[in-house]
Write a structure and sequence with these properties.
The structure is a single chain. This protein is α/β, with parallel strands linked by helices and 477 residues long. It is 25% helix and 25% strand. The chain contains twelve helices and 21 strands. Helix 8 crosses helix 9.
Protein backbone atom coordinates (compact mmCIF):
# COMPACT_ATOMS: atom_id res chain seq x y z
CA UNK A 1 0.00 0.00 0.00
CA UNK A 2 1.39 3.46 -0.88
CA UNK A 3 2.18 5.85 1.94
CA UNK A 4 -0.85 7.85 3.09
CA UNK A 5 -0.43 11.48 1.98
CA UNK A 6 -0.86 14.31 4.44
CA UNK A 7 -4.43 15.51 4.57
CA UNK A 8 -5.73 18.86 3.39
CA UNK A 9 -6.96 21.47 5.89
CA UNK A 10 -10.49 21.40 4.50
CA UNK A 11 -10.79 17.70 5.27
CA UNK A 12 -10.23 17.80 9.01
CA UNK A 13 -11.30 21.38 9.83
CA UNK A 14 -7.85 22.62 10.68
CA UNK A 15 -6.89 19.70 12.89
CA UNK A 16 -3.93 18.74 10.65
CA UNK A 17 -1.42 20.67 8.49
CA UNK A 18 -2.50 22.12 5.15
CA UNK A 19 -0.93 20.69 1.98
CA UNK A 20 -2.72 20.90 -1.36
CA UNK A 21 -2.93 17.67 -3.36
CA UNK A 22 -4.47 16.75 -6.70
CA UNK A 23 -7.99 15.36 -6.88
CA UNK A 24 -6.61 11.89 -7.58
CA UNK A 25 -4.85 11.83 -4.21
CA UNK A 26 -8.00 13.10 -2.49
CA UNK A 27 -9.89 10.13 -3.94
CA UNK A 28 -7.03 7.87 -2.88
CA UNK A 29 -7.41 9.11 0.69
CA UNK A 30 -11.09 8.21 0.67
CA UNK A 31 -10.14 4.76 -0.59
CA UNK A 32 -7.89 4.15 2.40
CA UNK A 33 -10.69 4.79 4.91
CA UNK A 34 -12.54 1.67 5.97
CA UNK A 35 -15.87 3.05 7.10
CA UNK A 36 -19.33 1.55 7.40
CA UNK A 37 -22.52 3.59 7.30
CA UNK A 38 -22.82 4.11 11.05
CA UNK A 39 -19.63 3.17 12.88
CA UNK A 40 -20.61 1.72 16.29
CA UNK A 41 -19.76 3.94 19.22
CA UNK A 42 -17.89 1.85 21.76
CA UNK A 43 -18.32 3.02 25.34
CA UNK A 44 -15.12 2.69 27.37
CA UNK A 45 -15.31 0.56 30.49
CA UNK A 46 -16.20 3.03 33.26
CA UNK A 47 -13.77 3.51 36.12
CA UNK A 48 -15.21 2.46 39.47
CA UNK A 49 -12.61 4.21 41.62
CA UNK A 50 -15.43 6.27 43.14
CA UNK A 51 -17.67 3.25 43.73
CA UNK A 52 -18.61 2.19 47.25
CA UNK A 53 -20.94 -0.47 48.64
CA UNK A 54 -24.46 0.83 49.27
CA UNK A 55 -24.52 2.69 52.55
CA UNK A 56 -27.59 2.39 54.78
CA UNK A 57 -26.14 4.63 57.50
CA UNK A 58 -27.88 7.64 58.89
CA UNK A 59 -27.64 10.63 56.56
CA UNK A 60 -27.95 14.37 57.04
CA UNK A 61 -29.08 16.87 54.41
CA UNK A 62 -28.06 20.36 55.52
CA UNK A 63 -29.02 23.61 53.83
CA UNK A 64 -26.55 26.39 54.55
CA UNK A 65 -28.00 28.87 57.06
CA UNK A 66 -31.18 26.82 56.92
CA UNK A 67 -32.82 23.66 58.24
CA UNK A 68 -31.18 20.30 58.81
CA UNK A 69 -32.95 17.10 57.67
CA UNK A 70 -32.07 13.67 59.04
CA UNK A 71 -32.70 10.60 56.93
CA UNK A 72 -31.22 7.35 55.72
CA UNK A 73 -28.54 6.80 53.08
CA UNK A 74 -29.22 4.51 50.13
CA UNK A 75 -26.32 5.42 47.83
CA UNK A 76 -22.56 5.87 48.10
CA UNK A 77 -20.81 6.47 51.40
CA UNK A 78 -19.55 9.89 50.41
CA UNK A 79 -19.93 13.42 51.77
CA UNK A 80 -20.56 16.13 49.19
CA UNK A 81 -21.53 19.76 48.81
CA UNK A 82 -23.47 21.43 46.00
CA UNK A 83 -26.40 23.63 45.04
CA UNK A 84 -29.74 22.20 46.19
CA UNK A 85 -32.41 22.36 43.48
CA UNK A 86 -35.72 20.56 43.03
CA UNK A 87 -37.61 18.99 40.14
CA UNK A 88 -41.34 18.32 39.97
CA UNK A 89 -40.98 15.70 37.23
CA UNK A 90 -43.05 12.59 37.94
CA UNK A 91 -40.98 10.21 35.80
CA UNK A 92 -37.67 10.14 33.98
CA UNK A 93 -35.26 10.05 36.91
CA UNK A 94 -32.58 8.08 34.94
CA UNK A 95 -32.66 10.77 32.24
CA UNK A 96 -32.64 13.64 34.74
CA UNK A 97 -29.77 12.25 36.80
CA UNK A 98 -27.59 11.71 33.69
CA UNK A 99 -28.34 15.18 32.27
CA UNK A 100 -25.01 17.12 32.31
CA UNK A 101 -26.98 20.27 33.17
CA UNK A 102 -27.30 18.89 36.72
CA UNK A 103 -23.52 18.74 37.26
CA UNK A 104 -22.65 20.11 40.70
CA UNK A 105 -26.25 20.08 41.97
CA UNK A 106 -28.04 18.08 44.67
CA UNK A 107 -31.31 17.08 43.06
CA UNK A 108 -34.41 16.95 45.27
CA UNK A 109 -37.39 15.04 43.81
CA UNK A 110 -40.87 16.23 44.76
CA UNK A 111 -42.39 12.95 43.52
CA UNK A 112 -42.82 11.00 46.80
CA UNK A 113 -41.64 7.60 45.51
CA UNK A 114 -38.54 7.34 43.32
CA UNK A 115 -36.81 4.23 41.99
CA UNK A 116 -39.81 1.95 41.51
CA UNK A 117 -38.87 1.08 37.91
CA UNK A 118 -35.16 0.71 38.60
CA UNK A 119 -32.27 1.73 36.34
CA UNK A 120 -32.01 0.45 32.75
CA UNK A 121 -28.93 -0.86 30.98
CA UNK A 122 -26.45 1.23 29.00
CA UNK A 123 -27.86 -0.14 25.74
CA UNK A 124 -27.28 1.87 22.58
CA UNK A 125 -29.40 2.48 19.50
CA UNK A 126 -28.55 2.03 15.82
CA UNK A 127 -26.54 5.29 15.86
CA UNK A 128 -24.52 4.28 18.90
CA UNK A 129 -26.38 6.69 21.20
CA UNK A 130 -27.47 5.69 24.69
CA UNK A 131 -31.11 4.59 24.63
CA UNK A 132 -32.04 5.40 28.22
CA UNK A 133 -29.44 7.86 29.52
CA UNK A 134 -28.48 11.41 28.55
CA UNK A 135 -24.77 10.83 29.20
CA UNK A 136 -22.63 7.83 30.20
CA UNK A 137 -22.52 8.76 33.91
CA UNK A 138 -24.70 9.99 36.74
CA UNK A 139 -24.20 13.77 36.73
CA UNK A 140 -25.95 15.09 39.85
CA UNK A 141 -23.72 15.52 42.90
CA UNK A 142 -26.35 14.03 45.21
CA UNK A 143 -29.92 12.69 45.32
CA UNK A 144 -32.64 13.47 47.89
CA UNK A 145 -36.04 11.70 47.93
CA UNK A 146 -38.89 11.20 50.38
CA UNK A 147 -39.11 7.46 49.80
CA UNK A 148 -36.95 5.17 47.65
CA UNK A 149 -38.12 1.88 46.16
CA UNK A 150 -35.54 -0.73 47.13
CA UNK A 151 -37.36 -3.29 44.99
CA UNK A 152 -38.01 -2.35 41.37
CA UNK A 153 -39.98 -3.76 38.46
CA UNK A 154 -39.51 -2.92 34.78
CA UNK A 155 -38.51 -4.90 31.71
CA UNK A 156 -35.55 -2.58 31.00
CA UNK A 157 -34.23 -2.47 34.60
CA UNK A 158 -30.92 -4.11 35.50
CA UNK A 159 -30.23 -2.56 38.92
CA UNK A 160 -31.80 -0.46 41.64
CA UNK A 161 -31.42 3.29 42.03
CA UNK A 162 -29.37 2.72 45.19
CA UNK A 163 -27.02 0.29 43.46
CA UNK A 164 -26.50 2.75 40.62
CA UNK A 165 -25.77 5.68 42.97
CA UNK A 166 -23.27 3.56 44.89
CA UNK A 167 -21.53 2.44 41.69
CA UNK A 168 -21.27 6.04 40.52
CA UNK A 169 -20.02 7.29 43.91
CA UNK A 170 -23.03 9.56 44.41
CA UNK A 171 -24.60 9.85 47.88
CA UNK A 172 -28.40 9.58 48.15
CA UNK A 173 -30.77 10.30 51.04
CA UNK A 174 -34.32 9.09 51.70
CA UNK A 175 -36.73 9.46 54.60
CA UNK A 176 -36.69 13.26 54.63
CA UNK A 177 -39.61 15.67 54.23
CA UNK A 178 -39.11 16.83 50.65
CA UNK A 179 -42.22 19.04 50.97
CA UNK A 180 -40.48 21.10 53.64
CA UNK A 181 -37.27 21.21 51.59
CA UNK A 182 -39.06 22.44 48.47
CA UNK A 183 -41.06 24.99 50.47
CA UNK A 184 -37.81 26.39 51.86
CA UNK A 185 -36.11 26.47 48.41
CA UNK A 186 -39.13 28.21 46.84
CA UNK A 187 -39.16 30.87 49.56
CA UNK A 188 -35.39 31.34 49.96
CA UNK A 189 -34.23 30.36 46.47
CA UNK A 190 -31.80 27.66 45.38
CA UNK A 191 -29.31 27.24 48.23
CA UNK A 192 -25.98 25.63 48.98
CA UNK A 193 -26.33 22.31 50.78
CA UNK A 194 -24.41 19.28 52.01
CA UNK A 195 -25.05 15.56 52.28
CA UNK A 196 -23.22 13.91 55.17
CA UNK A 197 -23.26 10.13 55.58
CA UNK A 198 -22.81 8.46 58.97
CA UNK A 199 -21.79 11.54 60.90
CA UNK A 200 -23.46 13.90 63.34
CA UNK A 201 -24.21 17.37 61.99
CA UNK A 202 -21.59 19.93 62.98
CA UNK A 203 -22.52 23.59 62.56
CA UNK A 204 -18.84 24.41 61.98
CA UNK A 205 -19.06 22.46 58.74
CA UNK A 206 -21.16 25.29 57.31
CA UNK A 207 -17.86 26.94 56.44
CA UNK A 208 -17.08 24.00 54.13
CA UNK A 209 -19.93 24.70 51.71
CA UNK A 210 -18.66 25.18 48.17
CA UNK A 211 -20.48 27.37 45.65
CA UNK A 212 -20.57 25.71 42.21
CA UNK A 213 -20.99 29.13 40.60
CA UNK A 214 -17.30 29.67 41.31
CA UNK A 215 -16.51 26.88 38.84
CA UNK A 216 -16.82 26.74 35.06
CA UNK A 217 -18.90 23.56 35.11
CA UNK A 218 -19.20 23.52 31.32
CA UNK A 219 -15.49 22.79 31.07
CA UNK A 220 -16.08 19.66 33.18
CA UNK A 221 -18.83 18.16 30.98
CA UNK A 222 -17.77 19.29 27.49
CA UNK A 223 -15.80 16.96 25.24
CA UNK A 224 -12.08 17.72 25.18
CA UNK A 225 -11.74 16.86 21.48
CA UNK A 226 -14.17 16.66 18.54
CA UNK A 227 -16.30 13.55 18.09
CA UNK A 228 -18.66 12.52 15.30
CA UNK A 229 -22.02 10.77 14.91
CA UNK A 230 -23.04 9.82 11.36
CA UNK A 231 -26.55 9.74 9.94
CA UNK A 232 -27.61 7.52 7.08
CA UNK A 233 -30.94 9.36 6.74
CA UNK A 234 -29.68 12.53 5.01
CA UNK A 235 -26.74 14.49 3.68
CA UNK A 236 -26.59 17.59 5.91
CA UNK A 237 -23.75 18.16 8.36
CA UNK A 238 -24.18 20.16 11.58
CA UNK A 239 -21.50 21.41 13.96
CA UNK A 240 -22.56 21.02 17.60
CA UNK A 241 -20.93 23.14 20.30
CA UNK A 242 -20.88 20.67 23.19
CA UNK A 243 -21.55 22.46 26.46
CA UNK A 244 -22.86 19.22 27.98
CA UNK A 245 -25.01 17.92 25.14
CA UNK A 246 -27.77 15.40 25.93
CA UNK A 247 -27.87 12.17 23.94
CA UNK A 248 -31.43 12.86 22.81
CA UNK A 249 -30.41 16.18 21.27
CA UNK A 250 -27.91 14.30 19.13
CA UNK A 251 -30.57 11.66 18.40
CA UNK A 252 -33.06 14.37 17.38
CA UNK A 253 -30.55 15.74 14.84
CA UNK A 254 -29.19 12.43 13.55
CA UNK A 255 -32.65 10.90 13.27
CA UNK A 256 -33.68 13.77 11.00
CA UNK A 257 -30.81 13.21 8.60
CA UNK A 258 -28.04 15.42 9.96
CA UNK A 259 -24.61 14.00 10.68
CA UNK A 260 -23.09 15.87 13.61
CA UNK A 261 -19.55 16.75 14.59
CA UNK A 262 -19.34 17.89 18.21
CA UNK A 263 -16.70 20.40 19.28
CA UNK A 264 -15.44 21.48 22.72
CA UNK A 265 -17.40 24.40 24.16
CA UNK A 266 -14.55 26.88 23.62
CA UNK A 267 -13.61 25.77 20.09
CA UNK A 268 -13.34 28.73 17.62
CA UNK A 269 -16.34 27.57 15.64
CA UNK A 270 -16.35 30.66 13.39
CA UNK A 271 -13.12 29.44 11.80
CA UNK A 272 -14.64 26.17 10.53
CA UNK A 273 -18.34 27.00 10.12
CA UNK A 274 -18.00 27.21 6.32
CA UNK A 275 -17.51 23.43 6.29
CA UNK A 276 -20.98 22.89 7.80
CA UNK A 277 -24.61 23.45 6.90
CA UNK A 278 -25.60 24.57 10.39
CA UNK A 279 -24.33 25.27 13.91
CA UNK A 280 -26.07 24.03 17.06
CA UNK A 281 -25.34 25.10 20.67
CA UNK A 282 -26.21 22.53 23.31
CA UNK A 283 -27.48 22.61 26.87
CA UNK A 284 -25.09 22.62 29.81
CA UNK A 285 -24.64 23.44 33.52
CA UNK A 286 -23.94 26.56 35.49
CA UNK A 287 -23.62 30.28 34.89
CA UNK A 288 -23.43 31.17 31.16
CA UNK A 289 -21.13 34.12 31.87
CA UNK A 290 -18.31 31.65 32.62
CA UNK A 291 -18.24 30.80 28.89
CA UNK A 292 -16.76 34.05 27.61
CA UNK A 293 -14.72 32.32 24.90
CA UNK A 294 -17.86 30.63 23.57
CA UNK A 295 -19.74 33.94 23.55
CA UNK A 296 -16.90 35.61 21.64
CA UNK A 297 -16.73 32.82 19.06
CA UNK A 298 -20.51 32.92 18.54
CA UNK A 299 -20.40 36.69 18.07
CA UNK A 300 -17.68 36.31 15.45
CA UNK A 301 -19.70 33.52 13.81
CA UNK A 302 -22.79 35.70 13.44
CA UNK A 303 -20.67 38.53 12.05
CA UNK A 304 -18.89 36.38 9.47
CA UNK A 305 -21.40 33.70 8.41
CA UNK A 306 -25.04 33.31 7.39
CA UNK A 307 -25.16 29.69 8.63
CA UNK A 308 -28.38 28.72 10.49
CA UNK A 309 -27.95 28.56 14.28
CA UNK A 310 -30.06 26.98 17.01
CA UNK A 311 -29.44 26.91 20.77
CA UNK A 312 -31.12 25.01 23.60
CA UNK A 313 -31.08 25.90 27.31
CA UNK A 314 -27.52 27.11 28.07
CA UNK A 315 -26.96 27.32 24.31
CA UNK A 316 -29.92 29.71 24.11
CA UNK A 317 -28.40 31.87 26.86
CA UNK A 318 -24.99 31.92 25.17
CA UNK A 319 -26.64 32.92 21.90
CA UNK A 320 -28.36 35.81 23.67
CA UNK A 321 -25.10 36.94 25.29
CA UNK A 322 -23.39 36.85 21.89
CA UNK A 323 -26.20 39.00 20.48
CA UNK A 324 -25.62 41.59 23.20
CA UNK A 325 -28.33 40.71 25.72
CA UNK A 326 -27.89 39.86 29.40
CA UNK A 327 -28.79 36.85 31.53
CA UNK A 328 -30.19 36.71 35.07
CA UNK A 329 -30.25 34.05 37.81
CA UNK A 330 -33.75 32.89 38.71
CA UNK A 331 -34.77 32.51 42.35
CA UNK A 332 -35.19 28.73 42.16
CA UNK A 333 -35.21 27.99 38.44
CA UNK A 334 -37.53 25.83 36.38
CA UNK A 335 -37.09 22.05 36.49
CA UNK A 336 -40.13 20.06 35.41
CA UNK A 337 -41.87 18.31 32.51
CA UNK A 338 -45.08 20.35 32.51
CA UNK A 339 -44.18 24.03 32.16
CA UNK A 340 -46.38 26.05 29.74
CA UNK A 341 -44.55 28.22 27.20
CA UNK A 342 -46.38 30.62 24.87
CA UNK A 343 -45.23 30.90 21.24
CA UNK A 344 -45.28 34.67 20.66
CA UNK A 345 -45.43 34.18 16.86
CA UNK A 346 -48.52 31.94 16.78
CA UNK A 347 -50.24 32.44 20.14
CA UNK A 348 -50.09 28.71 20.84
CA UNK A 349 -49.13 27.25 24.21
CA UNK A 350 -46.77 24.28 24.45
CA UNK A 351 -46.17 22.10 27.51
CA UNK A 352 -42.40 21.87 27.83
CA UNK A 353 -39.59 20.07 29.64
CA UNK A 354 -37.16 22.39 31.44
CA UNK A 355 -34.02 22.35 33.56
CA UNK A 356 -32.34 25.69 34.17
CA UNK A 357 -31.47 28.19 36.88
CA UNK A 358 -30.66 31.14 34.60
CA UNK A 359 -32.71 33.01 32.00
CA UNK A 360 -32.31 35.65 29.31
CA UNK A 361 -33.39 39.18 30.19
CA UNK A 362 -35.64 39.86 27.19
CA UNK A 363 -35.65 43.62 27.88
CA UNK A 364 -31.96 43.74 26.89
CA UNK A 365 -32.37 42.14 23.45
CA UNK A 366 -31.04 44.25 20.55
CA UNK A 367 -33.52 45.68 18.04
CA UNK A 368 -32.87 42.97 15.43
CA UNK A 369 -34.00 40.24 17.86
CA UNK A 370 -37.40 39.48 19.36
CA UNK A 371 -38.88 37.25 22.02
CA UNK A 372 -39.93 33.84 20.68
CA UNK A 373 -41.43 32.08 23.73
CA UNK A 374 -42.59 33.25 27.18
CA UNK A 375 -43.04 31.18 30.33
CA UNK A 376 -46.71 31.39 31.38
CA UNK A 377 -45.90 30.55 35.01
CA UNK A 378 -43.35 33.25 35.83
CA UNK A 379 -43.25 35.33 32.59
CA UNK A 380 -39.52 34.62 32.13
CA UNK A 381 -38.06 34.38 28.65
CA UNK A 382 -38.26 30.96 26.97
CA UNK A 383 -36.92 31.76 23.50
CA UNK A 384 -35.45 34.36 21.16
CA UNK A 385 -35.38 34.61 17.38
CA UNK A 386 -33.57 36.87 14.94
CA UNK A 387 -35.95 39.03 12.91
CA UNK A 388 -34.34 38.38 9.52
CA UNK A 389 -31.92 35.45 9.84
CA UNK A 390 -32.38 31.71 10.58
CA UNK A 391 -31.13 31.99 14.16
CA UNK A 392 -33.16 31.12 17.25
CA UNK A 393 -32.86 29.62 20.71
CA UNK A 394 -35.20 28.05 23.27
CA UNK A 395 -34.80 27.92 27.02
CA UNK A 396 -36.84 24.71 27.25
CA UNK A 397 -35.91 21.30 25.81
CA UNK A 398 -37.71 20.41 22.55
CA UNK A 399 -36.05 16.97 22.58
CA UNK A 400 -38.05 16.24 25.77
CA UNK A 401 -36.27 13.31 27.35
CA UNK A 402 -38.30 12.60 29.34
CA UNK A 403 -41.21 14.88 28.87
CA UNK A 404 -43.84 16.12 26.39
CA UNK A 405 -43.16 16.26 22.66
CA UNK A 406 -45.18 19.43 21.95
CA UNK A 407 -42.19 21.42 20.74
CA UNK A 408 -40.12 18.75 18.96
CA UNK A 409 -41.16 20.35 15.65
CA UNK A 410 -38.50 23.01 16.33
CA UNK A 411 -35.84 20.54 15.22
CA UNK A 412 -37.71 20.23 11.92
CA UNK A 413 -37.86 24.02 11.64
CA UNK A 414 -34.12 24.28 12.25
CA UNK A 415 -33.15 21.51 9.83
CA UNK A 416 -35.42 22.95 7.13
CA UNK A 417 -33.40 26.18 7.36
CA UNK A 418 -30.21 24.08 7.28
CA UNK A 419 -31.40 22.38 4.08
CA UNK A 420 -32.27 25.75 2.49
CA UNK A 421 -28.84 27.10 3.41
CA UNK A 422 -27.18 24.05 1.89
CA UNK A 423 -29.18 24.46 -1.35
CA UNK A 424 -28.34 28.17 -1.49
CA UNK A 425 -24.65 27.49 -1.06
CA UNK A 426 -24.79 24.97 -3.91
CA UNK A 427 -25.88 27.75 -6.27
CA UNK A 428 -22.80 29.85 -5.53
CA UNK A 429 -20.40 26.95 -4.86
CA UNK A 430 -21.49 24.04 -7.09
CA UNK A 431 -18.57 21.87 -5.94
CA UNK A 432 -19.12 22.48 -2.22
CA UNK A 433 -19.53 19.23 -0.30
CA UNK A 434 -20.27 19.57 3.42
CA UNK A 435 -20.64 15.86 3.98
CA UNK A 436 -18.06 14.44 6.39
CA UNK A 437 -15.32 12.53 4.60
CA UNK A 438 -14.92 8.83 5.43
CA UNK A 439 -11.44 9.57 6.73
CA UNK A 440 -12.82 12.21 9.10
CA UNK A 441 -15.42 9.75 10.35
CA UNK A 442 -12.72 7.12 10.82
CA UNK A 443 -10.32 9.39 12.71
CA UNK A 444 -12.69 11.20 15.07
CA UNK A 445 -13.94 9.65 18.28
CA UNK A 446 -17.56 8.48 18.41
CA UNK A 447 -18.11 9.54 22.02
CA UNK A 448 -17.29 12.41 24.36
CA UNK A 449 -13.54 12.63 24.92
CA UNK A 450 -11.90 13.12 28.32
CA UNK A 451 -15.04 13.91 30.36
CA UNK A 452 -14.49 13.06 34.04
CA UNK A 453 -17.50 11.66 35.99
CA UNK A 454 -19.11 13.82 38.64
CA UNK A 455 -17.48 14.31 42.04
CA UNK A 456 -18.28 16.31 45.15
CA UNK A 457 -17.99 20.07 44.79
CA UNK A 458 -14.91 20.17 47.02
CA UNK A 459 -13.11 17.82 44.62
CA UNK A 460 -14.35 19.81 41.63
CA UNK A 461 -12.99 23.00 43.14
CA UNK A 462 -9.62 21.36 43.80
CA UNK A 463 -9.56 20.01 40.24
CA UNK A 464 -10.42 23.46 38.91
CA UNK A 465 -7.65 25.11 40.96
CA UNK A 466 -5.16 22.44 39.91
CA UNK A 467 -6.08 22.94 36.26
CA UNK A 468 -5.65 26.72 36.54
CA UNK A 469 -2.26 26.26 38.23
CA UNK A 470 -1.12 23.84 35.54
CA UNK A 471 -2.25 26.25 32.82
CA UNK A 472 -0.43 29.12 34.50
CA UNK A 473 2.75 27.06 34.85
CA UNK A 474 2.58 26.03 31.20
CA UNK A 475 2.17 29.64 30.08
CA UNK A 476 5.06 30.75 32.28
CA UNK A 477 7.28 28.02 30.83
Amino acid sequence: MPMLPRIAHSTLFGLVPTIKRPLAIAKQIRGFATVEGNTPRVQPTPSRIRSTPISYDRATFTIRDGPVFNGKSFGAKSNISGEAVFTTSLVGYPESLTDPSYRGQILVFTQPLIGNYGIPSAARDENGLLRYFESPNLQAAGVVVADVAEQYSHWTAVKSLGEWCAEEGVPAVSGVDTRAIVTYLREQGSSLARITIGEEYDADQDEAFVDPEQINLVSKVSTKAPFHVSSSAGDTHVAVIDCGVKENILRSLVGRGASVTCFPYDYPIHKVAHHFDGVFISNGPGDPTHCQDTVYHLRKLMESSQVPIMGICLGHQLLALAAGARTIKLKYGNRAHNIPALDCTTGRCHITSQNHGYAVDASTLPSDWKEFFVNLNDSSNEGIVHKSRPIFGTQFHPEARGGPLDSSYLFDTYLESVARFKQGQAVFQPKRDSRPSPLLVDLLAKERVGVVPTTGMENLLRMNEAGEQATGAARAA
